[in-house]
């Protein structure tokens, strides 16, 4: 078979000749046949580029990992490595130091100092009194309550009418406190009242709260506070 050059009109060109001998024109069939080869080349080139990209990423990751390992190695340089024996010796030293430290003495409450104080004895025939110095109940001010120790060896104080001494103060508990007479001396005991029982400490210049259910000796002239009611012991 032969073909005619469409560019210059040259005729009878053998089919196996792809180029016109007159003008050098190349048949389109040959160009189309060569395009897949170019595309393959491009595809292969793309694979090569992708391969290069993957290789570059791998190299970047390797560099990052190397830097991380170097940083960890530098950080480990400042860490002291101790053996188990050294750690055990250090623990023993800490234990010895802790045992050698003197224990702090337990704090002594102010109220406990009042338990052992010396107070005056009451002579036979003398009847101590409680005089109200201050109270939120106006009718109680300056009121006197005789303890009647010859009748009651225990005098109960509270808001409840069943007490020997009744104090109508809303801050006084129903069964607030008790006064005992033993061996010629007076003692007071708080019965776990809500607002507490206090003795005025002249040395400290303030009221000291008494611990509940502990007997405290009281003396002539002592000032007590029950709720918001303040009384004085006289005889």
Write the layout of secondary structure elements.
Elements (H helix, E strand, L loop, with lengths): L1 E2 L9 E2 L13 H50 L6 H17 L9 H6 L13 E6 L9 E3 L7 E5 L6 E2 L10 E6 L2 E6 L6 E5 L4 E4 L5 E4 L4 E4 L2 E6 L1
Notable characteristics:
235 residues; alpha+beta; six-stranded antiparallel β-sheet; five-stranded mixed β-sheet; 3 helices; 13 strands
Can you give a write-up of this model?
The strands form 3 sheets. The protein has a 6-stranded antiparallel sheet with strand order 4-3-13-12-9-10, with no helix packed on it. Strands 6-5-7-8-11 form a 5-stranded mixed sheet, with no helix packed on it. The chain has a two-stranded antiparallel sheet with strand order 1-2. The model is unreliable at 36-52 (pLDDT under 50). The protein is α+β, with helices and mostly antiparallel strands. It is rod-shaped, with a radius of gyration of 55 Å. It has 3 helices and 13 strands, in the order ββαααβββββββββββ.
Structural class: alpha+beta
Could you tell me the mean pLDDT?
A: 79
As a percent range, the share of helical residues equals: 25-40%
SSE pattern, N- to C-terminal: EEHHHEEEEEEEEEEE
Overall shape: rod-shaped
Number of β-strand runs: 13
Q: Poorly predicted ranges (pLDDT <50, ≥5 residues)? A: 36-52
Q: N-to-C terminal Cα separation, in Å?
A: 155 Å
Estimate the strand proportion: 15-25%
Give the count of helical stretches: 3
User: What is the makeup of the main sheet?
Assistant: 6 strands, antiparallel
- Gyration radius (Cα, Å) is 55 Å
Strands side by side in the biggest sheet: 4-3-13-12-9-10
């Amino acid at each position: 078979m032969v073909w005619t050059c469409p560019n210059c009109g040259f005729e009878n060109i053998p089919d196996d000749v792809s180029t016109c001998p007159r003008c050098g024109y190349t048949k389109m069939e040959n160009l189309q046949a060569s395009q897949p080869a170019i595309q393959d080349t491009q595809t292969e080139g793309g694979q090569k580029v992708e391969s290069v990209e993957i290789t570059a990423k791998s190299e970047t990751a390797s560099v990052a990992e190397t830097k991380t390992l170097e940083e960890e190695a530098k950080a480990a340089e400042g860490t002291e490595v101790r053996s188990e024996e050294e750690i055990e010796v250090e623990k023993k030293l800490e234990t010895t130091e802790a045992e050698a430290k003197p224990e702090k003495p337990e704090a002594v409450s102010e109220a406990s100092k009042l338990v052992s104080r010396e107070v005056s004895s009451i002579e036979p025939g003398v009847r101590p009194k409680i005089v109200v110095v201050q109270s939120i109940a106006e009718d109680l001010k300056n009121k006197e309550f005789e303890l009647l120790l010859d009748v009651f060896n225990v005098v109960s104080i509270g808001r409840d009418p069943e007490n020997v001494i009744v104090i109508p103060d809303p801050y006084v508990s129903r069964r607030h406190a008790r006064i005992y007479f033993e061996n010629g001396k007076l003692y007071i005991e708080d019965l776990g009242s809500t607002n507490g029982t206090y003795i005025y400490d002249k040395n400290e210049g303030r009221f000291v709260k008494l611990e509940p259910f502990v007997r405290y000796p009281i003396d002539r002239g002592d000032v007590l506070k029950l709720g918001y009611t303040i009384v004085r012991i006289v005889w």
